[in-house]
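Appendix C reproduces, verbatim, an entry submitted by the partner laboratory led by Prof. M.T., so that reviewers can inspect both the input and the predicted structure.
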Amino acid sequence: MDRHRQMQVFEAVAREQGLAAASRALDVSEATVSRTLAALEKRLGAKLLERSTRGVTLTDIGRTFANECTRLLRAADEADASANGLHSEPRGLLNLVAPLLFGERLLMPVVLDYLDAWPGIEVAMAYQDRFPNLHEEGIDVAVLIGALPDSFMVARKVGDVRQIVCASPDYLARHPAPRTPADLAAHSLVFCSADSRMLEWRFEHQGSSRNVALKPVLRCTTQSAAIDATLRGAGLACCLNFQVHEHLQAGRLQPVLEGFEPDSIPVHLVYREGRRASARVRSFVDYAVERMRSHPVLHG
């Protein structure tokens, strides 16, 4: 069996997390899958899978090889499509990654409209605050909030977001709003550890920056939980404006310390391959950039 077929079988086993499921996906016998895996491990001289009565798990080498198989098989499919004149028509699976609240509140409406416009596309949407390695993880397009870490990344800026401190009207009726960051010491604070492990918030004023150490009354592992507690009057929380845009518009939260906000933070769509990107990637990026740049929350 040739290398390409071995990679297809192994990629299916890794994706389906089992030999039986992979055999059904490939429409071959489980014995064929097992023989193919054995031949592949022998050819590579490395163990790719750990087998047990509960199924299979990838070894570290197997996990890396599975990512490479996914990338190479996709590239081969796209080369075939290009040769057949299909490269100009967006189709196939598009893998997207975005931070949770950004993805839910800003990107998902764009994705749904894009799917209506291009029925030949399927989208796999993953939410994670960690920025992925696009090549190793097989990601087509990712949202990056913050400075670009790698000058070789292909990116399109969609706007800027800003940090704000906010509280519910009920809380501010009971506790006068802080006038300077030093006043935070007299307030109940809600802290999200997903944003930073350091118990501090950063502020800027008249060209100088300052980090303020915190003693929060409540620590949350997700920004959603911190926002929910803030809506219930637990105290002051530090958020990015897109995370609480609807609450601010509805008056459920109110900003404070507006004169001490740090500089705006850039938001980019980052993707692989540049001009050689597939039609589905190029069409989605073009569509999403135009839509997102018009959103008021991305104007910084």
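The chain has three domains: 3-83, 92-159+265-298, 163-260. Additional entries are available on request from the coordinating office.
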